[in-house]
Amino acid sequence: MSLARRLISAGFSDLEKGERFLAAPELEGLEQEALFSGLSLAASPDTALQSLVRLIEKNPGLKTLAAADPDTSEPLYRLLGASEALGEFLMRRPEHLDVFNTKVSPEPLSASSDELRSLLLRSVKADPGSLRPIAGLTGLPAYTALRAAYRRGLTELAIKDLCAASPQDFMPAVGAELADLAGAAIEAALAVSRAEATGQFDAEEVAGVGLAVIGMGKCGARELNYISDVDVIYVMEAADLDDARAATIGTALASGISRAISSFAPEPGLWEVDANLRPEGKSGPLVRTLASHLSYYARWAESWEFQALLKARTIAGDRDLGQRYEEAVQPLVWASAGREGFVESVQAMRRRVTDHIPAAEEQRQIKLGRGGLRDVEFTVQLLQLVHGKSDESLRCRDTTSAIAALSAGGYIGRVDAAAFDNAYRYLRVLEHRIQLFQLRRTHLMPVAEDAQRFLAKAVLGPFALERPHPDQLIGAWQKTKRAVRDLHERIFYRPLLNTAAKLSSEDAKLSPEAAQGRLAALGYLDPQGAMRHIEALTAGVSRRAALQRQLLPILLGWLAEGVDPDAGLLAFRRVSEALGTTHWYLGLLRDSQAAAERLCQVLANSRLIADLLEVSPESVAWLGSDKDLAPIPFDAQWQEIQSKLSRHPDPGGAMRLIRLIRRREILRTAIADSAGLLDQDAVGLALAEADRAAVLGALHVAEAAVTDAGPLKTDVLVVAMGRQGGREIGYGSDADVMYVHRARPGFTDAEAQEQATTIVARISSLLTQPLKPAIMAERVLQVDADLRPEGKNGAMVRSLDSYAEYYRRWSLIWEAQALLRARPMAGSDELARDFVRLIDPIRYPDELSEQDVREIRRIKARVESERLPRGADPARHVKLGRGGLSDVEWLVQLIQLQHAGKHPELRSTSTLEALAAAERLALIGKGDAGLLRQAWKLASRIRSANVIVTGRASDLLPSSRRDLEAVARWCGYAPGTAGKFEEDYLRLSRRARSVFEKKFYGT
C-alpha cells in the first residue's frame, strides 16, 4: 500500500503535511506499523502526528512509548489527537509527560474532590489540613505552579474521558471532576491570595476574615465544561472586625483569587472567575456577609436569581460558612415558583436568550440555540422549581440527576426522560470535544469539513472503528436538536406548570391536614370522603401513585369549579382505577392541560359523561385532541358496523357491537359539546347520525335473521319522524319512526307483509332488549312508531301502496303535519325515493283549508291541556309549556302547511331551517323569528342539559338550585348566574308564547 493511501486510510486530512512529518528525523527508527497503529486511534491523526514530533523533539525518550503496543500507547495517541492545547501544555511542561504512564480503563474511576484539593494546595505549598490554608508561594511562581498542577489534572481527566468505552455514559463524571478541579484551583488561589494579603494587611486581620466561595451555574452543579467561566458568589464573615474593614480585606481576597487564576504569568491563565451573579451584579459589592445576601434576596431579588441559586454549592473557602449560606437560600429557591408570574418570567428569559443569538451563529449553536443545551436545562430547572417545593427528591443540582428524579417522580414520562437524557449527554459530549481541542470557550459547531470530520470521530467511543463522514455528524446533531426542541416546547410550555406554581407547598404536598382544610375551603361537601378517595389514589410508592400526588393538588381545584366536586372526585377515582396502570392516562393529564381541565369539568358537571367514562375509560384519550372529539360521519360509522357484521354473524354479538358504537359516539359528542367544539346544530346532527347508523345496523341484523329461514321477500324502509327526522335531537331523544315495505318480485303482498312485520318487530327488540353481558351506562334507543297511520291502532308496518291508499282516502291533517318531518333513515334507497314522492303532495299541499287550520289549532289546544303532566308548571315545561318547543314547532309547521306548496324553500324537516326560510319569505317578521329561534334553541339546550347533568331525561326547567346551576352552565352561563339564567328563560318563553299566540291563533 502506498504511503498516501495509508494516510487516507488512517484518517489524515492533509496528506502533504502528513508525509512531511512522517519523514521528520525525530521519528527515525520508529516502525511505521507501530506508528500507524497508534495514529489510527487518534480523532485527528494530523494533530496527533504533529504534536508527537514536537514532543519527541523536546523529550526523545517519548519515542519508546510511541513505539509500544496499542494498549500501552493508547493514552498518548488519543490525547494528542483530541487536544492540540494539552499537547502544547506538555511541550511547555515536559515534566508532566509521565501522565501517559497510566493504564486506561473502559470504565474509569473519578478522582475524589478531596484528592484534587490536596493536590492543588500542595502545588502552592499550602497545608490541605488547615481550616484556612495559606500558600508558601506567591506571585508568578505561585500562579505558574497552580496552573500547571490544574492542567496536569485536566490532562489526566481528558485521557480517562477519551478512553472511556462510552463517552456519553462517562460525561456526568467528567463534568463533576472538572467542577471539583475548578473548585480545587480556586481553593489554592484563595490560599495564594491570603498569603499575598498578609503583605497588605495585618496577618491576624486576614486570618480573621472567613470567605466562602459559592460555585454557581455548571460549576455549582458539578457539570462543568472543559473550558468555561466559573461563576461564583463570595460570602464573608469577620466577627472581630468592623464591617468596612472586613469588606476591604474580603474584597482583596476575592480579587486575589481571580489574579491567581487568570492574570499574566509564564503559564497561561485558566479561565475567568465570574462574580456577576452576585446580588446587584457588577454594580454590587464583590463580597457580602450572609445577612446582607439574605436581606437582598428577601427584598430585591428577581425570579431569575432564584433559578440561578438552584445550582449554588460551596466549592472553596470556609465550608461552615458556605453550608450556612446554602441552608439559608434553599427555602428561598424552593418558594420562588410561587412568585407572581414566575413561570412566565422563566419562559420569557429562555426566549430572550434565543433572540439574542447573533444571526451568523444561530444555526451553529450547540448551547444557546433552538434544540440546544439551554432548552434542556431551562426545561429541567423550571420543572424542578415548580414541583421541588413539595417533592424533595427533585432538589438536585446537576441536569442528568434532575432528569432521572423528574422521571422517577412522574413529572416527565419515561420515554421523554430517556430521550432528554440521551440528547443532553450527546450535546455535552459534542461541546466537550469541540472545546478540548484548543481549550477555547466555544459552543459553535465548526464549519470546516476537516474539523467536522475530527468531531465525528471524537464523539465516538474507543471501540468504534469507523470514521463517519461529516454529513453523518450533522445529521445526528440536527436530529437531536429537533427531538430536544419538540420535548422542550411540549414540557417547558406545559400549561399545568402555571397552575402548579401557584400552589402553596402544603397544598402541593397534599398532606392529610392541609388537604382536609383545602377541600372544605374549595367547596367539597364531604371533605373526609374526598380524603378517602385521595388516599386511595395516592397510596404506595408506585409510579402511578407518584403521578397522582403530583396531579391531584391541581385537579382538586378544577373539580371544585364544577357543580358537584364530590361526585367529580369519586368519578375521577373510578376512571383512574379502571385505567389501572395504563401508561398513557396520567401522562396525558400531566402533559395536556386541555385534557386535564376537560376531564375535571365533565366529571364534576355531568353525571351522563361521568357514567359513560367509567365504563369506557379509554375514551379519556380523546380529551387531549380536538381532532379525536370531532363527530365520526355516518359513512364511517356504517363502514365500521359493516366490518363488525361480517365478523359476527350471530345477532346478539352483532347488536352488542352496534350499540357499543352508538354509546361511544354519544360520549364523543357529549365531550365535544362540553368543550365548546360543537354548536347546537352540530350536536343534533351528530346524535342523529349515531342513531341512524344503529337503526340501519339493526335492520341488516333483522333481515339477516329472517333470511336464515328463507329468501328476503320484501324491502323495508325506516322513516325518521319528529325531531329525529329533523336531525334536531338531544341526548334524551327517542326515535320516532314509521315503517314502509314493498314486496320483492315473485312474492305475494301477504308474504311480504308477514315478513316485514317480523323484521320491524326484531328491529325494536334488537335496539332495546337487554344483552348479556349488559352494556353498562347505555342510553337505550327507544323506537316509537306512534306517528304511523291510525296511530297505535294501525298496522306497525305498511306497504307503499297501502300508504298511498290510506293517504288518498283517510288521512287527517295531523298526519300531514307529522309528515313534515319525515326523512328516510334506513333501508332501500329506491323505496325511500318513492316514499318521499308519495308524501310530498300530502305534506306540502297547494293550499290549506280553513277547516284544516281550525283542526290544527284544536289539536294543539288539546295537547296543551291533556299532555302536560299533572302538577307541572307550564312556565317551566320546556317541551309542552308556555313558549316551549311545541309552540315554536307547531307554528313553523302551520306556516309550512300553508305555504310550502308554493314555496319550495320551506320544504325542510328542520324547524330552524324552515323558520329561516319563512323569515326570508316575509311570512314572519325578523324580530319574531329571532325570538322564536332563541326560545327554541334555549329550550332544546335545557332538555339536553337535563340528561347531561343528571343522567335522566326531563322536560322541566330544574327547581333544584344545584341542578339549575349545572344546567345554566351547560347552557353557557357563567358560574353563579343560575338565577339570571332562570329569569332569562322565563322571560324569553313568555315573549315567544306571545308571538306564537299572535301568529298561530291570530290573537
Number of strands: 10
Strand proportion:
under 5%
Q: Biggest sheet, open or closed, and with what strands and sense?
A: 5 strands, mixed
- As a whole number of angstroms, the C-alpha radius of gyration is 41 Å
Count of helical regions: 45
Shape type: elongated
Given helix and strand content, the structural type is mainly alpha
Q: Give unreliable regions as ranges.
A: none
What average pLDDT do the residues reach? 93
Distance between the termini: 113 Å
Helix content: 55-70%
Describe what is shown at a glance.
The chain is mainly α and 1003 residues long.
List the helices and strands and how they pair.
Layout: H1 3-10, H2 15-22, H3 32-39, H4 45-58, H5 62-66, H6 70-82, H7 84-92, H8 113-123, H9 139-163, H10 167-197, H11 203-208, E1 210-215, H12 217-220, E2 230-237, H13 243-262, E3 273-274, E4 287-289, H14 290-299, H15 303-309, E5 313-317, H16 319-335, H17 342-355, H18 373-387, H19 399-408, H20 414-438, H21 449-458, H22 470-491, H23 496-501, H24 505-509, H25 512-522, H26 527-538, H27 543-560, H28 565-579, H29 585-591, H30 593-605, H31 607-615, H32 634-647, H33 651-674, H34 680-707, E6 714-720, H35 722-725, E7 735-743, H36 749-768, E8 783-784, E9 797-799, H37 800-809, H38 813-819, E10 823-827, H39 829-843, H40 850-866, H41 885-899, H42 911-920, H43 926-950, H44 961-970, H45 978-1001
Parallel strand pairs: 2-3, 2-4, 7-8, 7-9
Antiparallel strand pairs: 1-2, 1-5, 6-7, 6-10
